[in-house]
Design a protein that fits this description.
By secondary structure, this protein is mainly beta. Helices cover about 0% and strands about 65% of the residues.
Length: about 90
């Protein structure tokens, strides 16, 4: 699986644009943002394999861009699929 994330500041925290591909078709993917201090927030969920050429997902988190350490993508069963530095 591969993914990239664009983070933009927003009044409530951060707006995210995610491009992802390569997850096993049919699984539910969950993007989780992780702050430097360890707080987490789910930013988006999507069904893998439903997007030709990969998924383009929008999401939001109540964290400012400078406080986000990294992002994790998990499968619906809790298996970590990917970690992406912020």
């Amino acid at each position: 699986m591969t993914a990239s994330i664009e983070v933009s500041p927003a009044a409530w925290g951060s707006a995210l644009q995610v491009s992802a591909k390569g997850a096993p078709p049919g699984i539910t993917c969950r993007l989780q943002a992780v702050e430097v201090m360890g707080t987490t927030a789910t930013a988006a969920t999507w069904q893998a394999g439903e997007y030709a050429g990969g998924a383009a997902i929008s999401g939001t988190v109540p964290m400012s861009p400078g406080t986000i350490s990294h992002f994790d993508i998990y499968a619906g069963n809790g298996q970590k699929l990917l970690t992406i530095p912020a």
